[in-house]
User: Fold these one by one.
Assistant:
Number 1:
Amino acid sequence: MGSLALLTWTFLWLSFLCVGGGLGVIPEMERQAVTVHHWLSAREFVDGYTLAQLTPGPNMLIAVFVGDRAHGLLGALLAGLAMFVPTSVLAIVVSHHWKQWRVRPWAMIAERALVPVGVGLMAGGVYTLGRTAIHDAATAALAAATALAVATDRVPPVLAVLGAGVIGWLLWR
């Protein structure tokens, strides 16, 4: 039972690192799940993140995937609850008061200060995922082309990602 408690504790404290979105916690989640606890491999982590992105719901469903790989259905349930419940409660409490606090100078400073933190954490998440997913010139070119297609707003992001997935599948099957 100690390993389930460790899994739950890990996702509980990881949930509070999601500043600016779930992608910001990916580097530390990958480090904990792959390097520290050996719950899955780096490749399995990237594949799990990809699957979590394809499913409806929050992008942090990767926590459920990791919990399942580590300890089955109970691990999935505990990891999901630890990842979502505490921060949901915190968001409800803070949002209830934020409208009145938002006009205060300290609140405006805090909002502005968190923007670069969130951007930096998300960049770290992209780097962590790319480090495993981009392993040769072909995957680098495919990732760059997809990013360019999404950045130009000429192709809807979902079509760009699905198209890249189909191309990748055709090239590497």
Note: Helices lie at 2-15, 26-36, 42-54, 62-101, 105-133, 137-151, 157-172.
Number 2:
Amino acid sequence: PVFEREMGCTGDELRAWLPGASGGAPLAWRDDGADVAVGGGCLRLRWHALPPRRIALIVLPRLRVRFEFDGAGADERRRFMRHFDLYTQRGGG
């Protein structure tokens, strides 16, 4: 399965989050992303910066992130994405 999503962060922030967001799984860094071991397979993450979103005086960074799973089962993908999403979630308070 392959999908893309927009994330409200910079590439540097995503790189800093990825070791924790991947649950400590082995990572191989690339200039435009990373490869993450997921169960018996791999997740290829690729990203590039998008123009920031501007709302009045607020400027929010944006990344287009491509998720490409190879060889990981459906349960492994769901488990990984649930942890990834919770880890990278930005909340209001």
Note: The chain has a mean pLDDT of 94.
